Amino acid sequence: MSAEYTTFGLAPAMRAGGVLASGVFKTHRDFMDFIVGGQPLLFQLSDLDAVSPLASDVPPAIFTAEVRTLLLDAPAPLEGGRCVIYACPECADLGCGAVTAVIERDGDDVVWRDFAWQTSEHADLEREGYEGLGPFRFHGGTYRAELERLIAATSADVSASPLRPPRRRVLLIGARASVLRKLAAALRTIGVGADISRDAARVPAEELRTYGVVAFGRAVGVEERASVRAAFTAAGADVTFVDGLAPVIPVLVAQIEGAFPRGPWEAPRLTELSVSEGEALLTVASPCEVLVMAYRLDRLYRTHEQAVFTGTLDVGEHRVPLPPRANKGQSYLVARSMDTALVAPVPR
Length: 348
Description:
It contains seven helices and 20 strands. With about 350 residues, it is an alpha+beta fold. The chain has three domains: about 10-155, no CATH class; about 165-235, Rossmann fold (3-Layer(aba) Sandwich); about 260-348, Sandwich (Immunoglobulin-like). A four-stranded antiparallel β-sheet has the order 6-7-8-9. The radius of gyration is 22 Å and the shape is globular.
């Protein structure tokens, strides 16, 4: 095997949940990604919407079995010594497609080779192989140490474990109870804990410190906002405050998603969204599939939505023309990639 040595590591990553234009929810998934040669392996797979088998919501026994397979302490689940590297974030079913590779020992080393997009028990390398990806040769000691620490963390069941990322939790403060209830339900579906309150001063300090984001509705006054901020400051809570743009659930969900902090390996692929002179301006740091939706409130506060753009964008700045109706009334854009949600108001 002539593959050159490369580095192997693990780092927390996520597949962002969300509310799609159709009303369908995307499940939020936290997982450990493979860092190969100093960068996430998932980033080398053309914006694939997938997660590794090392997900935080997998039962401990199954999680340990997945790690044992990668360590070659258990038989490979697929023919030809193939293991699943990434799978569907919703069901992990092979029928939806999965990235697989042969994992084998070569002396003291471990080699990953013959990567393929597999949809059945048999991998057709000529038709489904990833040309130019791998093979990767890892020093066996480092490889085992990285994976074995996951088993140790799972057994210890400590809250600081990389397998258990801090729970994403938001406090919703607003005047429209119906909107807040719908928003809380949408956020919980994508893995964000949401609570509703109007008086943060009465909430114990230790509970305030469990929130990562506080979202204000538009009807919340200046004095009430200041009181909430003071309560979190007194509790020593490090939170991000978000001013809700509109009583439109997909817009609010995207605002809150984008407010949570990211880890060092979770650099977004879609980095900027703004609107100028009838165009959406998008900045892309890594090639990705992008969906841009426009949401508009009419005079009766009914929500209208329209798809503006969907497609793969390369690195750089891009201009997307907006349809005429997107410039009427109160309008907002939501741009999504696999791991990012950005929001921008449309100037009238």
